Amino acid sequence: MRRAITTRLVSLILVVLALTFAVFLVQTLLPADPVRAFFGRNASPELIAQKQAELGYDQPIFQQYFGFLGRVASGDLGNSLQTRRPVTSDLANFLPATFELALVAAILAGLGGLVLGVSAQFGSAGPPILRTLAVTLSSAPSFLLGILGILFFYRRLDWLPAGGRSSIDDPPDITGFFLLDSILSLDPSALWDGILHLIMPATILAVGPAVAIGRTLRATLASTLETDHIRSVRAMGVSERRIITRHGLRNSVGPVLSVAGLQVGLLIAGAVVVEVVFSWPGVGLYLSQAIRVSDFPAVVGVVLVLAITYVLVNAIVDILQLAADPRQRT
Amino acid sequence: MTVPDMTVPEIVARVRDLTVQFEVAEGTIHALRGVDLDLRRGEIVALVGESGSGKSVLGATLLGLPPSSRRTRVDGEVTVAGVDMLTGEQQRKRLTRRHLLGAVWQDPLSSMNPTMRLGDQLRERGLDEVRSTSLLGEVGVDEPARRLRQWPHQLSGGQRQRAMIAMALGADGRLPAEAAESTVSIDDVHGAPMLVIADEPTTALDVSVQAQVLLLFDRLRRDHGCAVLLVTHDLGVAASIADRIVVLYAGQVCEDGAAADVLETPKHPYTKALLAARLSAVDDAGVRSIPGAAPNPLERLDGCSFAPRCASAQQDCRDSVPTLERSDGRSLACHHPHSAVVEVALSTRLPRNEPSDEVVLELRNVEKTFALPGWGRNRMTAVADVSMTVHAGESIAIVGESGCGKTTLLRMACGLLAPDHGTVHRSTTTPPQLVYQDAGGSLTPWLSVGRQIEERLAVVGVARRDRPERAAELLERVGLDPRAGRSRPTTLSGGQRQRAAIARALASAPKVLVCDEPVSALDASLAVRVLDLIDELRAELGLAVLLVTHDLAAARYLSDQVRVMYLGRFVESAATDNLFSDPVHPYTRGLLAASPTIEPGRLAPTLKGEPPAAAETVVGCAFASRCSEVEPPCLEEPQTLRPLPVSNRSVACRVQFRDRRPPSA
Question: Is residue A80 part of a domain?
Answer without folding.
Answer: no
